[in-house]
Amino acid sequence: MTARPLFSHRPFWAKRFGIAPVLPTTRAEMDELGWDSCDVILVTGDAYVDHPSFGMGLIGRLLERHGFRVGIIDQPDWRSTDAFTELGRPNLYWGVTGGNMDSMVNRYTSDRKVRSDDAYSPGGAGGLRPDRCVLVYSQRCREAYPDVPIVIGGIEASLRRIAHYDYWSDKVRRSVLVDAKADLLLYGNAERAIVELTHRLAAGEEIDAIRDLRGTAFIGARAGFEEVDSTTVDKPGRIDPPKDPYAMEPERAEAACSTGEAAPAPTLIKLTKKRADRSLTALRMPSFEQVQGDPVLYAHASRILHLESNPGNARALVQRHEQGPGKPAIDVWINPPPVPLTTAEMDDLYELPFSRLPHPKHRATKLPAYEMIKFSVTILRGCFGGCSFCSITEHEGRQIQSRSEQSILSEIERIRDVTPGFTGIISDLGGATANMYRMACKSREIEAACRKPSCVFPGICDNLNTDHSSLVSLYKKARALKGVKRIFIASGVRYDLAVRSPEWIRELAQHHTGGYLKIAPEHTEDGPLQHMMKPGIGTYDRFKELFDRYSEEAGKEQYLIPYFIAAHPGTTDEDMLNLALWLKRNGFRPDQVQAFLPSPMASATAMYHTGYNPLKSLVAKERVKIVKSPAQRKLHKALLRYHDANNWPIIREALQRMGRADLIGGGKQHLVPSWQPAGTGGAPGTPKPRGPRKGTALTQHTGLPPRRQHDKKR
Questions:
Q1: Per-residue DSSP letters for 236-283?
Q2: Virtual CA dihedral for 691, 695, 698, 704, nearest 10 degrees?
Q3: What tens digit of pLDDT does each residue of 188-241 get?
Q4: Could you tell me which residue, 455 or 235, shows the higher pLDDT?
Q5: Residues 457 and 333 in one domain
Q6: 174/285 same-domain check
Q7: What backbone phi and psi angles, to 5 degrees, belong to 463?
Q8: What HEC string does 113-177 produce?
């Protein structure tokens, strides 16, 4: 698995214009740079920030390094084409993205309520981007200049590259490629694909002829490939009769569907037939119409997509979409994932000449997302955790891509020297996770052949290197830099890996935690944890024990703040009740709680939509308990906030229904009291029962012992 080095191309002729202080967003800014036109115009739903944590800033500077003139249209008014003609006609293509977040996740809560704010907009204002950004922006780009190719990318396009369940419309939607009528889709970390694509278009190739780029999807076909029915690779239906060991079954023209329809009689081929070359094999997935109408086939398609995600062995995927009466069907073709960047390429990428500031037009107002990351440093990409509710692996990949120690230290020094407002505090050294830095499979051969969705579930793979020593070394050198007072770790901690390295936990507790550390066990019960692909709560307990010990050694009073998910597939009311009891025993009173949000393409979303478990073979059709009704979702969230009096009525009702009325009362062993304060819970309150008066009782008005009350009066 090799790829052309990211920075090995001969620069485009426009490199003579040099480095722009900021990529232009207006015609006036283009004139200042001496540009008569842009080679590429990027359209984004985020306010433009020239910082490596913002996708358009990163891609824009990368293409600039290759000699291309790049303009950016950020948060345009999509109600007309006026904003889309501001920079003129792009010479090569439009690059369209919704931004750093899916626009629907950005706009709506897990209860489908409209959010009032947007962290990627000036002042945090909401409503500055349309729903389904990629579709709307692509339509306006096509209207503005119909002959210019449209390339879509970013997380919104990446996670919608095949037919997918859409939570907000509660239906299966077509690939975003079909609805956006785009020419090409770049998924995942797209640096390799976009550099190669841009150079080839600049050399005169037509975009319809560029079909061989990894990490891309398009409408059409590729010559020289052998198609294999995906249902012969991983059967979604009934159990077939045992095969003749001396014969093999060829590809079936049509899949045997989950309704029990019989498959065509197989024609046997001798085993002497040469095995198909995986690099020239495409899996024919169930069509859009099939996954739309059959939950089992939808779960099967999801399972295939995740099985074919390793760049070392993934095959191309093909999915047919009908276009309606009288129109020919079209195929969405998805090439294998991109080859991960090397450490040297990561270093060069993150050392591009970013100003690390918002565009000047945004500096008068605060951008909440920028304020969060302006003093942070990305040290890695990717995640091999494979949590079923998370889309990081689907987007960034399972292989960890790490920067060198020296590159990271140099960026910290640049922040110190050039970023306004730096006070000596680095807010984070991390990425998708805090502690996967330089971790990889011990064998490249095994890694290239592996098809597991996770390296740490159901247990940590024996082939995984979990050494944290490189990270410990980095922390020590970083905090020793002149002018650096503190370095915090704000990225998520994978605590099942951390317990393998007590030395790293000591570093984290004694030098890089500021009193509270957020951590995400997500649940306490095995049922939901199995469907989340998360470790058992016992691993959290071991991490907490070590964290508390090392905090005490340093003379620090520090606390873990655990995060939990309500209403995740596989969760029962009893599971949530047990979690609430665990929270109360351990003294946790969560303020904000997270309910499961079915994001496109996640395995847990397939569970939510279909009721089947795509983490296992679908021959057995394992059913999954799904929490869909608003009432049950509300109950699960209420149990996480058992201490809120507004939630007590529905919790009491649920406890009585579950036969657990013994948990209603005023004792420590009870979850909620039997009385209700006035003005809470949507019903008239009932008074709190009074016990017998005693001389040492807490006073009624202040809640303080008599002596403390007297001190307060003084």
A1: -SSPPPPPPTTEE----SSPPPTT-PPPPPPPPEETTSPPPPGGGEEE
A2: 170
A3: 999 999 999 999 999 999 999 999 999 999 999 999 999 999 999 898 864 333
A4: 455
A5: no
A6: no
A7: -85, -5
A8: CECCECCCCHHHECCCCCCCHHHHHHHHHHHHCCCCCEEECHHHHHCCCCCEEECCCCEEECCHH
What is the bridge-based pairing of β-strands 40-44 and 70-74? parallel
Half-sphere exposure at residue 65, Cβ-oriented, CA atoms within 13 angstroms: 21
> What is the tally of helices (H) and strands (E) in the chain?
25, 25
441 and 561 assigned to the same domain? yes
Distance CA 705, CA 148 (A): 77
Pairing of strands 49-50, 357-358: antiparallel
Tell me: do 329 and 444 sit in the same domain: no
Q: Residue 681: what pLDDT?
A: 77
Residue 712 belongs to a domain? no
CA 178 from chain centre, in angstroms, equals 23
Condensed to tens digits (0 to 9), the pLDDT of residues 173-202 reads 999 999 999 999 999 999 999 999 999 999
Confidence of residue 323 (pLDDT cuts 50, 70, 90): confident
**pTM of the predicted model as reported, rounded to 2 decimal places:** 0.90
Instruction: Tell me how far CA of residue 337 lies from CA of 161, 176, 315, 556, in angstroms.
Output: 12, 18, 9, 45
pLDDT digits (tens, 9 = 90+) for 341-399: 999 999 999 999 999 999 999 999 999 999 999 999 999 999 999 999 998 888 898 99
DSSP state of 19: -
Please report, to the nearest 10 degrees, the dihedral formed by the alpha carbons of residues 158, 161, 164, 170 taken in order. Answer: 60
C-beta separation of 102 from 159 below 8 A: yes
Tally of domains in the chain: 3
In a domain, 255, yes or no: no
Looking at the structure, tell me whether residues 381 and 333 fall in a common domain.
no
C-alpha 98/C-alpha 77 separation (Å) is: 14
User: Does 704 map to a domain?
Assistant: no
CATH classification at residue 504: 3.80.30.20
Exposed, middle or buried: residue 19 (CB in 10 Å: 0-12, 13-18, 19+)?
A: exposed
Q: Are residues 60 and 103 in the same domain?
A: yes
Domain shared by 162 and 232, yes or no: no
Report whether 274 contacts 293 (CB < 8 A).
no
Query: Which domain covers residue 324, as residue numbers?
Result: 222-239+272-337
Token code pair at residue 582: 């665990």
Between CA 369 and CA 123 the distance in angstroms is 10
Count of residues in the chain: 714
